[in-house]
Amino acid sequence: xxxxxxxxxxxxxxxxxxxxxxxxxxxxxxxxxxxxxxxxxxxxxxxxxxxxxxxxxxxxxxxxxxxxxxxxxxxxxxxxxxxxxxxxxxxxxxxxxxxxxxxxxxxxxxxxxxxxxxxxxxxxxxxxxxxxxxxxxxxxxxxxxxxxxxxxxxxxxxxxxxxxxxxxxxxxxxxxxxxxxxxxxxxxxxxxxxxxxxxxxxxxxxxxx
Length: 209
Prior knowledge:
Blueprint: H1 14-38, E1 56-57, H2 59-77, H3 79-87, E2 117-121, H4 127-143, E3 148-153, H5 159-163, E4 167-170, E5 174-175, H6 184-201, E6 206-208
Parallel strand pairs: 1-5, 2-3, 2-6, 3-4
C-alpha cells in the first residue's frame, strides 16, 4: 500500500502536522525504551572529570558578593548611574530583557505580556533541596501573582529544570564554609557575571531560597 508523503512542513495541513509530531514522539519513546532495556547502565557516561578545580566559596562571602552585585545594579539603574554612563567616552550597548519559558506548570504565561521575571538563587542546595524549592516557586507561580522564574545554581544536576522547561544559569563553584576569602580575580569575574545576569533578566534583586 502506498504511503502518502508530505513534501515539506509548510505544505502540510494541521492534521498532517499533528500526525507527524505524534509519529516522532512514538519513535522517540521507542528508541528510549530500547536504550533502557539494551544498554548496560555502566556503558553510559554521566559525568566527566573536571579539567580544573572549582573555586570554593563560603556562604558568608557568597552573601556579600550577591549583595554587592545588587547594589551595583541599583546604582546602574539610578539617576546617578545614568549620569555616569552619559559621561563615559563609549556608550555601553543596551542589553534587551530576555523572556524565558515560564515552565510547563504555567505555560499559558508565554503569551501574556508584562509578566515580570524573578531571579532565585539556589546556591549550595543538593538535588532534593533544589527540587523542593522549585516546587514551592512553581506553586506560588500558579496560585499568586504571575511571574517567570529564573534559577541560579551551582549544582550541575539540571534534571528538575530541564524536565519542567525552566530557565536557569549555572555557576561552577562549590559552597564550602571552611573556604577562605575568594581569589580576587574570580570574585571580580563572579560579580561581572552576576551583573550581566541581572541586566539580562531585567531585575535588581536576587531572591535567595
